Amino acid sequence: MKPIEHFIESIILASRWLLVVFYLGLALALAIYAFSFANKLIEFVSKVMVLEDTDTILKMLGLIDAALVASLVVMVIISGYENFVSRFDKADGEVHWLGKIDAGSLKVKVASTIVAISSIHLLQVFLNSAQYTSEQIMWLTIMHMAFVVSAIFLAIIDKVMSATGKGKEE
User: Whose CA is closest to 126, among 112, 114, 116, 140?
Assistant: First the structure.
C-alpha cells in the first residue's frame, strides 16, 4: 500500500507546478496592462497643459491606481510562486523580501492594496461627485468600508496566527 500512497503523494506534490501557468498568465496580463498604462500616460502628457487642476489630479490618481494594481499582480506572482511552487534561486542578486511573505502575509498585503486602490477610486468619485448620485456615493463608501474592515480582520488574524506560531511554515 505504501508504493500507491507514495505515487499519489508524488502526483499531488507535482500538481503545484500547474500554478506556473497561472503565474505566467498574470505576467502576460501585467505586460498588457503596462501598455494600457503607457497609453494613459501619453494621453495625460499630451493634455497636461489644457487640463484643470481637478482633472490633472484625477489623471494622476488613475496612474497611481494602475501602479498599485500592477504592484498587486507582481506581489501575487512572486509570492505565490515562492510559497506554492518553488523557491527562487537568489544567486544573481539578493532580493531582500523574497521568502519572507507567507500566505497569511500575502493576504494582508493584497487586502491592504485593495483598500488603497479603493481609496483612490473613492477619492476620484469625490472629486467628480457631480457625476454621481448620493446613493451611488453612499454605496461606494460602504463597499470601501467593507474592504477596510476585511483588511483589518485579516491583519488581526495574521497577527494572532503568528503570535501563536500557527499558520507559519518553519
Answer: 140
Sign of CA dihedral 47, 49, 51, 53: positive
Which residues have C-beta within 8 Å of that of residue 6, sequence separation ≥ 6?
A: none
Q: What does the pLDDT average to over 3-14?
A: 90
d(CA 34, CA 135): 34
Task: Judge whether 101 and 75 are in contact, CB under 8 Å.
Answer: yes
For residue 72, give the C-alpha cell: 498587486
- Read off the amino acid at residue 11: I
Secondary structure of residue 31 in the 3-state scheme: helix
pTM: 0.74
Neighbours of 158 (CB within 10 A): 21
pLDDT over 60 (residue 72): yes
DSSP letter (8 states) at residue 131 = G
